[in-house]
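Subject: Protein entry, chain in single-letter code together with its fold tokens

Area: Proteins and the way their chains fold up in space.

Attached in line: The record itself begins immediately under this heading.
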Amino acid sequence: MSSTPLSEPPEDPALDQIGPALSRLRRRAPASGKDLSRNLVLNVIADAPGETTVGGLAAEMGVAQPVASRTVAACIAEGLLRRAASQSDGRRTVLELTEHGEAERNRFAAEQRKAFLEITVAWSPEERTQFARLLTRYGVDATAWSRRQAAHRD
């Protein structure tokens, strides 16, 4: 994560295309809408630095709590998630991936890797690796930025 102060970005029109490009990436993922939601939930829970509640999941996904609750209920019914007592506060209920949930997460990742390789077939191996590293870095930095924004609002 970079803590470099903001500077004026170069006047490159490509910078104005970042948001639409990321939106297109999500829409073009090789999965059904149901898979997209499940994949997002599984990744948020797996990547969380600590315990995840339905409320925390909703905040991380940027959706209302009832939307997150319905998605979680579907994931529990499919055996992807389970509810458990918090280790730090037994009164709280947290979400955990099941073995089946981890297997589905791995299946999604394999599908996405296959699609990436097909989409970038004309790219050099170096370009693929550089893009993957930069996109991953962007995701990490975006998560940190989002958490800082939330902390400032609180």
The longest strand covers residues 81-85. The mean pLDDT is 87. The beta strands are 81-85, 93-97. DSSP finds six helices and two strands in the chain.
